[in-house]
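Recall the central idea of this unit: under ordinary conditions, the amino acid sequence of a chain determines the structure it adopts. In this exercise we apply that idea directly, starting from the sequence alone.
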Amino acid sequence: MPNNDITSYAVKADGTIESKRAADPWAATVGVPMPGVKAVGSPSALMAPNGTIQLAVRGDDGFVYRTGQTSPGSSTWLPWAEVTGYAHETAVDPTLSLAADTWVVAFRTPAGDPKLLRYQPVAARAAESTEFVEVPLTPAP
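Accordingly, the structure predicted from this sequence is:
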């Protein structure tokens, strides 16, 4: 966090995300419920270049979902959204990472294929573009 607090996120038994902040480790807040989908596994979080916290999690349907703060420091979160247009399931928990002036979501399909999706900020999107663009990965020689 901007004030150097650390916030951790975990999936509760009911599939909601719980957050705990280091400044007050006993105060727990339940994150945005995932209507129709139960989160499983470990969530991944990062502070994006625009100062918002972004979360990604594997849903019980095998797809990757993400949410994020509506603005830096906000307690309001965007609705959960599936990141691949339901084109690729994941066999593992997703990982978020910073990448230059944006961030990426990484995961593996059930067939073992690695997937890397780059987030496109609204200003960088064309009218027909989606929120995430798949980054082509080439195997090592």
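The first strand starts at residue 7 and ends at 11.
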